[in-house]
Amino acid sequence: xxxxxxxxxxxxxxxxxxxxxxxxxxxxxxxxxxxxxxxxxxxxxxxxxxxxxxxxxxxxxxxxxxxxxxxxxxxxxxxxxxxxxxxxxxxxxxxxxxxxxxxxxxxxxxxxxxxxxxxxxxxxxxxxxxxxxxxxxxxxxxxxxxxxxxxxxxxxxxxxxxxxxxxxxxxxxxxxxxxxxxxxxxxxxxxxxxxxxxxxxxxxxxxxxxxxxxxxxxxxxxxxxxxxxxxxxxxxxxxxxxxxxxxxxxxxxxxxxxxxxxxxxxxxxxxxxxxxxxxxxxxxxxxxxxxxxxxxxxxxxxxxxxxxxxxxxxxxx
Length: 317
Known about the structure:
Elements: H1 8-16, E1 20-24, E2 27-32, H2 37-45, E3 60-66, E4 77-81, E5 91-92, H3 96-111, E6 115-119, E7 121-125, E8 128-132, H4 140-149, E9 153-156, E10 159-163, E11 169-170, E12 176-179, H5 182-189, E13 207-210, H6 214-218, E14 226-234, E15 241-244, H7 247-256, H8 261-264, H9 266-278, E16 281-287, H10 290-307
Parallel strand pairs: 2-3, 8-14, 14-16
Antiparallel strand pairs: 1-2, 3-4, 4-5, 6-10, 7-8, 7-9, 10-11, 12-13, 15-16
Helix pairs in contact: 1-2, 4-5, 4-10, 7-9
C-alpha cells in the first residue's frame, strides 16, 4: 500500500497513536503528530511512498507537536521532537511541512551511521550519479530541482548516502526544500505540478517543497555508482564557469562537508577514497543562469556516457 491509498481517517488515527511508517529508500521513518494538517501534508508530499502498516521497527522517529502554553493558540507554533531531543527552535505552525523535512534530515544524519553521509544533493542519469556538494545558500537545491524536472532521477536533496561496502550511492528520495527566489524559478519550469504552495517565512523569503518524481520514488531502492562530483556556487551576474578539481582536493572538500567522516574513522577514509576513484571527474562550478547551468550539466552527462570518460568536459556555449 502507498500513502495515497490510505483513507484520511486512518492516517489521522495512525498519526495520533503509534505513528505512520513510511519507507524512504533504505530508511523506515515513523512520523507521529496530533496536528490535523499533517494528514494533508503526507498525502501531498508522500502520496507515492510505501506505507508500512504493520511495521514494528523504524530506523528513525519524528514527532511534530503543538507549541507550548499559549503558543498553541496565539501565533501557534509547532515543535519537532526526535529521539527524545528537540533539535530546532519552535517554528510558526504554517511551517510544519518544512519542519518535518528538517526533522527527518536531522534524524538520518544523527543515526544512519551505517553509511558515510555528506551534505549534498544526488541525481542520476543513464546509470551514473551526480553529486552536488556545497554549503548552504549555494544554489544546490535549485540545481537539483531543475535537473529532476528535466528527467534526472532524484536520490536526495540534502544527504549523500554512500554505502560502506562498495561506495555506491544510495537513494533517499524525499521532497526538495526551496527557499526565496529559487521557488519562482523552479515553479516556472514545473510542468508536472510538483512544486507545493509557498509557505510564508520572513527569514528565508518563503519556503516551498517539491515532490520527487514518480520515477524517483519507484526506483528509490536502486543504487548507482558515482559519475561526477561538483561543488556548485551560485554567484549573481556571473557567467557559468567550471574548473577541474584534483581528486585529492575533492576528497578534502567532501570530508569537510561530511556529517560522520570522523566518526567512521578508517571506514570513512576508505569509502570516500573508493567513491572518488570511481568518479569520471570533479569540478568547481559557478553559475548565475539556471538554464545555462542545467544545459552544461546535461551535456557533461551525455558526453561522459557516450565516451565513458569526461577528462575534457563540454564547453558552456
